[in-house]
UniProtKB/TrEMBL annotation:
SUPFAM superfamilies: Acyl-CoA N-acyltransferases (Nat) (SSF55729). It comes from Kribbella karoonensis. Keywords: Acyltransferase, Transferase. Transmembrane segments: none annotated. Pfam families: Acetyltransf_1. Residues 162-321 form the N-acetyltransferase domain. It comes from the Bacteria. This is N-acetyltransferase domain-containing protein.
Length: 321
């Protein structure tokens, strides 16, 4: 038997890479049938791998065994400075017949990324335990969760001391205050997110402009006559964080929720999440998607309780220390 061969990814590898990606996605959909069926078709998987290959600065490696491609890895930098000197492996950027081989592919591809000063590495990995384990044994850790659930069929009433209603223009001051709750929370330990919180005045100006946008459903939770929390639902099409294989068809998106610190634990977060789920059913969506920082001790516990199941792990590795 000839030894596996590792070499740089070339354009001619695209069709075989698409075949591997379609297979990986088919196995992934057995666990999550709500993920988009299209990419089980090699021709549509090819569109996704080609998009990664054509991204500016893309590079990677392939593994061939007895002349047949059995794995590939492709990454490209993102221009956003908040991710550091980065390269990203998107959902369509890797597929291997044997999970262990992702380690060989990374070994072959990462040298040039690091030589170019790109030391912050990110990868979107399906919730395949063996594949996640192989990435963990490359020094990666879990940073972010993508999750999905079907829309609910019944209505869940909020606790008796809470009212959840659609937000109105008069709620703008408290909506703006709640907008700052999430980045402030995530700026602290143990999330330490680098995202900039923005100012109260900017948040007010955003709400003044967007409160009547019919594409967004904004809810507030009221306790003892005071607004204590908010949530926002919209079409998943409006989220840039979910695309391609990680973007289910006809999905709603739980895009934001926050409860004032003093009012947490009363069930308001659940009630606000349920309002977006219910709105998604009424709008005609099939599923609802959300995502969270896994180091956010609040959302990472609240959203699974609402029935969200993780589909992809975003893993992260910082080289040099
Ligand atoms: C996330 C957040 C909106 C949840 O709101 P909340 O009012 O605190 O949550 P709830 O009281 O409704 O609890 C929600 C669920 O999480 C569970 N939960 C809360 N803390 C938990 C803990 N420490 N361990 C296990 N489960 C926990 C609750 O039991 C509840 O599930 P249940 O209804 O099945 O019992 C709120 O904590 C918050 O604003 N966090 C900061 C901003 C943020 O992270 N927003 C989310 C953006 S992705």
């Amino acid at each position: 038997m000839s030894r596996p061969v590792l070499r740089p990814f070339e354009e001619a590898d695209l069709p075989a890479a698409a075949g591997l990606l379609a297979q990986r996605h088919g196995a992934h959909r057995k666990r999550h049938p709500l993920l988009p069926a299209d990419y089980e078709d090699e021709r549509l998987a090819l569109v996704e791998v080609t998009a990664v290959w054509e991204s500016e600065g893309a590079s990677g490696a392939v593994l061939a065994e007895e002349g047949e491609l059995t794995g590939y890895l492709l990454a490209a930098p993102k221009p956003a400075p908040m991710w550091g000197p980065n390269v990203w492996v998107e959902a369509a950027g890797h597929a291997v017949r044997e999970p262990e081989h992702i380690r060989d592919l990374y070994g072959a591809a990462a040298a040039q990324w690091v030589d170019a000063g790109r030391t912050a590495h990110y990868v979107l990995v399906p919730d395949d335990a063996e594949l996640v384990d192989a990435w963990f044994r490359l020094g990666f850790g879990s940073q972010h969760a993508h999750a999905i659930r079907p829309v609910p069929s019944g209505v869940v009433a909020p606790p008796r001391d809470l009212v959840v209603r659609r937000a109105a223009r008069a709620d703008i001051p408290v909506l703006a205050e709640l907008d700052l709750v999430l980045p402030r929370h995530q700026g602290r330990s143990p999330v330490f997110s680098a995202g900039e919180p923005g100012t109260y005045e900017e948040a007010v100006a955003d709400w003044e402009e967007s409160i009547d946008d019919p594409g967004y459903a904004t809810f507030v939770a009221v306790h003892n006559g005071e607004v204590i929390g908010s949530s926002v639902g919209c079409s998943l099409d409006r989220s840039s964080a979910h695309s391609g294989l990680a973007k289910p068809d006809n999905a709603g998106f739980l895009g934001f929720a926050a409860v004032l610190p003093a009012a947490r634990g009363l069930g308001a977060g659940r009630a606000l999440g349920e309002a977006v789920l219910q709105w998604s059913t009424e709008t005609g969506y099939t599923s609802v998607v959300t995502d969270w920082r896994v180091t956010n001790l609040l959302s990472s516990r609240a959203w699974p309780r609402l029935g969200f199941r993780q589909t992809f792990h975003r893993l992260h590795r910082l080289i040099g220390y």
